[in-house]
């Protein structure tokens, strides 16, 4: 039972801080006047704790082994065209099933009044991700340094961004955060690990285990930017969708979310299951016991993710909006910024993909880079991101690109001096940080705040928050890398042997 | 121990604990005279019907390897035992094996340890190296023959037939290293079970070697 207790404890430490902070706010700055919302929040927290625990087991014994096996099988083909096509197809099918992408595409469809249809966006973004995953796999097998690829990719983005409208700039960066969700990230991470773990050079194998998520995320950005330039949509018409009135029912929202999310997750898991079964038939040929274990893992993943997402959507979303609104209505705006920072800090702890990434980092580096270190710097990064986004709502003159441009320039510049292992880790974290927790709870908080502040455009100001969450970890984690570099120089000994 | 003519006996200590304790143990060991060590990450298996059915019977472990002369080692593990309570269930396992020669550690003089044939050994350390993915089969086979569990460490390596190149990466096949502690009487059973189940005698299927263990903590029936 030790194993279960262990995992449960880890998840408890991840979810309790945010629960605690919200309760604290409830009794101080932002009392929730709706008692059913409060109860829903508590039930939501329990759902999240149980769901996240089960999900993490599922990833360990289901998703990760499939991804790793797939990576190895692809590499062993020893043919470039197989790597390219496999990368393209895998990326496409994984991304097209991602629920977050469908939500985002729905919003874009809405704000462009249907000029850019939902299905078009889903397909275009998925092609973008597929193409870039193919590129990422080729990078690993041909040992092309990650920082060079990233420099080129972000340069392309910069050029494209000049020709794009500011709204679409925000949407494109949000897309990159949205598409790398709770299911795709573990899979993509495992895929990279599978290929690179075969390398003879252990340093290379360590650092090449990371970076594929980062490359995949740029695929989404580039795809959306290109689409905007080609279709020339200038005007963005919509406001935010009409919000459902805060219901008084406690279990109503849970019952409402449950079938919806179940369906979404089935669709999202299906490609992974099918790809696995096809590969099992033609190439893995594992024992029945091993297959059973993986299938059990997928079932865990499914149950865990459904519980988690129901908890977030039904229990956390309204609370986020409510807190954002009431704190923004206070006279002292400093409170809003502080609360934003703290919420960002604690929300990221409960993000599923973050757990997967940090465990993989610990495994790959044999514990050299500890989970806590990565967690800590991610927390700081995301806290800053949310606080900066709030600042942008308070000061209308501040544009999103005022953050993004210098931010990415710093991030790219750092890749040239930071230990290469940390480049991969940092850029992967950027994609990983913006998962379901951020996309619902924090987004709701920011939107709530934007509603309360006069002159703030909910759409333009609140969008772009995810983009910020994806940016700041790139910088904070690379700074940690620099600190590691300085600290790990051996003291009192002559030069290293190498 | 002052004169050169006297043989200094060296021992290797191997400590297997839950993930996260490794660095703490290493620091304590250093306090008690051990000059350094290496930490590996591995996984252990838990024997539990329910967990096995659910497929979550793996637990992450850290393996700490320390080398020093006999008296330092004995002193250090006494102290470690006091602090980390290996003798309590689930607090970890410690065992020591004899070492033939130590190089590269400045504080230890290079000497050859001729004191072989350790007296009253009760346990053997069995090391099995197999292709990645087969470690669980090894553990299963060992458990059938009466072993209590084992630790799996990810590794890679190659025999003379196995290096190859894919694209521009040189490949070394992935291996798994399984460490099993067994009572002397059941060693033979365990290895013959592994040997037949994994067809170790056919080329390329793996390697088994067995070491005498001098001291153990944390093993119980």
TrEMBL record, chain A:
Pfam families xref list: DUF1538 (PF07556)
Residues annotated as transmembrane: 12-32, 38-59, 80-97, 117-138, 145-163, 175-198, 210-230, 265-282, 294-314, 334-354, 374-394, 400-418, 430-450, 462-484
Protein's UniProt keywords contain Membrane: yes
InterPro entries assigned to the protein according to its UniProt record, in alphabetical order: UmpAB
Coiled coil: none
Keyword Transmembrane helix attributed: yes
Keywords for this protein: Membrane, Transmembrane, Transmembrane helix
Signal sequence segment: none
Protein name (record): DUF1538 domain-containing protein
Protein species of origin: Sutcliffiella cohnii
Automatic annotation (TrEMBL), chain B:
Highest taxon above the source species: Bacteria
Listed GO MF terms: enzyme regulator activity
Alphabetical GO biological process terms: regulation of nitrogen utilization
Record protein name field: Transcriptional regulator
